[in-house]
């Protein structure tokens, strides 16, 4: 009897272990299948998300319309990613021209067009970069002016967002203004001033809508083979109907070139670009950045305040870039400095329009009489 009972106990224990193994095996298999299903679902959702992004970008940028325009010879072209990878030798470091907050720019050569280009590759996963890409394609692709950087084409495949521009042989104004081995002559500087003003006049008053650039600065002013100025980087640009003035927007731009009122109130309009234009004019004439440290009292000196102080002391010509010595036209230098101050006036209502500023630069009207002391800004 005892043997029988013992035998039965062993058999039950063995069946229990076998059942446990089976249960664990089934559970593991089910878990594995669930994991595979979840991964497959996530991949499918990701593909769908990328496809939707592709469709959204296509819609936002008006891709089909621009393809039709290009075929007619009037618009930029949509490129395949592979074409641009070949053009830049796989986006090699040797072809990299520079890098910014939302992507890098590469030199490339498009054999099919026999054209040297600059290709901006937006950083993957950059939401702001994606927004700027869409804004750039929507706006600059519709603009045609000799003083604007030409958009040759664009590409969006999956997570890759790329913009193709004409290549500017002399790079940006910024690299020339502060390169100790390069000295821009005064005639070249004055030519750049007029070119930039012409670009803004087109954007503000001569196109079908008013384009507010919102980031006018030397690093966005490109120079062609003959040092003609071309304004680029429309990632922050906004369209405004003519006559509607400034509008509230997200804070955007570069410190030193931004209107203080825009910083305080969040409003941006053509007058904001005029302010930036004024700062750039002073920078070109003086060879100094918008804000410089004072070595004596370790404070920061704003370029506009420094030039205005010289204007009040009837010594504005002393603001001229000392590297030029006296090798400049005094009348043109004074004109650029005074117009720069007028455009950077703290009160946006007292600034000239870009058309008025251009008329003054071209000696069609007299220079404004500015206050001896720089006014204190007032915001409504």
Walk me through the structure:
It is a single-pass type I membrane protein. ATP binds at residue 120. InterPro entries: Kinase-like_dom_sf (IPR011009), L-type_Lectin-RKs (IPR050528), Prot_kinase_dom (IPR000719), Protein_kinase_ATP_BS (IPR017441), Ser/Thr_kinase_AS (IPR008271). The protein contains 11 helices and 14 strands. The chain has helices at residues 2-61, 63-71, 81-87, 127-140, 173-177, 186-206, 260-265, 270-286, 303-312, 330-343, 354-361; strands spanning 77-78, 96-100, 103-110, 115-122, 151-157, 160-166, 210-212, 221-223, 229-231, 238-240, 247-248, 267-268, 291-293, 300-302. A 6-stranded mixed beta sheet has the order 1-5-6-4-3-2, sandwiched between helices. Strands 7-10 form a two-stranded antiparallel ribbon. The chain is elongated.
In summary, what is this structure?
With 380 residues, this protein is an alpha+beta fold.
Structural class call reads alpha+beta
- The run of helices and strands is HHEHEEEHEEHHEEEEEHEHEEHHH
Q: Give the overall shape, derived from the CA principal axes.
A: elongated
Task: Describe the largest sheet.
Answer: 6 strands, mixed
Extract low-pLDDT stretches.
1-12, 57-62, 69-73
Average of pLDDT: 84
Helix amount, in percent? 40-55%
Lateral arrangement of strands in the main beta sheet: 1-5-6-4-3-2
Helix segment count?
A: 11
- Quote the distance from N terminus to C terminus: 104 Å
- Proportion of residues in β-strands: 15-25%
- By DSSP, the count of extended strands is 14
GO biological process, one term: defense response to oomycetes
Main location: membrane
Protein name: Protein kinase domain-containing protein
Subcellular location: Cell membrane
């Amino acid at each position: 009897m005892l043997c029988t009972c013992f035998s039965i106990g062993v058999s039950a224990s063995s069946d229990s272990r076998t059942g446990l193994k089976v249960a664990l095996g089934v559970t593991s298999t089910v878990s594995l299948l669930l994991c595979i299903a979840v991964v497959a679902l996530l991949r499918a959702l990701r593909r769908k998300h990328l496809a939707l992004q592709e469709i959204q970008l296509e819609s936002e940028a008006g891709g089909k319309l621009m393809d039709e325009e290009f075929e007619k010879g009037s618009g930029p072209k949509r490129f395949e990613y592979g074409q641009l990878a070949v053009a830049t030798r796989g986006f090699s470091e040797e072809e990299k021209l520079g890098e910014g907050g939302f992507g890098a720019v590469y030199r490339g050569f498009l054999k099919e067009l026999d054209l040297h280009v600059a290709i901006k590759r937006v950083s993957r996963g950059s939401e702001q970069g994606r927004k700027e890409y869409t804004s750039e394609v929507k706006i600059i692709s519709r603009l045609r002016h000799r003083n604007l950087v030409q958009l040759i084409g664009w590409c969006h495949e999956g997570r890759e967002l790329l913009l193709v521009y004409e290549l500017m042989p002399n790079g940006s104004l910024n690299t020339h203004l502060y390169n100790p081995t390069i000295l821009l002559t005064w005639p070249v500087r004055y030519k750049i001033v007029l070119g930039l003003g012409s670009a803004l006049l087109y954007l503000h008053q001569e196109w079908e809508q008013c384009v507010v650039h919102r980031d006018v600065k030397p690093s966005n002013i490109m120079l062609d083979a003959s040092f003609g100025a071309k304004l680029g980087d429309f990632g922050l640009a906004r369209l405004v109907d003519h006559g509607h003035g400034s509008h509230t927007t997200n804070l955007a731009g570069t410190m030193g070139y931004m209107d203080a009122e825009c910083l305080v109130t969040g409003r941006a309009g053509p007058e904001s670009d005029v302010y930036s234009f004024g700062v750039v004019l002073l920078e070109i004439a003086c060879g100094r950045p918008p804000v410089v440290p004072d070595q004596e009292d370790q404070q920061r000196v704003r370029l506009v305040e420094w030039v205005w102080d010289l204007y009040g002391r009837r010594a504005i010509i002393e603001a001229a870039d000392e590297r030029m010595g006296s090798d400049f036209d005094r009348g043109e230098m004074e004109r650029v400095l005074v117009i720069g101050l007028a455009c950077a006036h703290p009160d946006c209502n007292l600034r000239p329009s870009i058309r008025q500023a251009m008329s003054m630069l071209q000696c069609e009207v007299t220079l404004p009489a500015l206050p001896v002391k720089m006014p204190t800004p007032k915001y409504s």
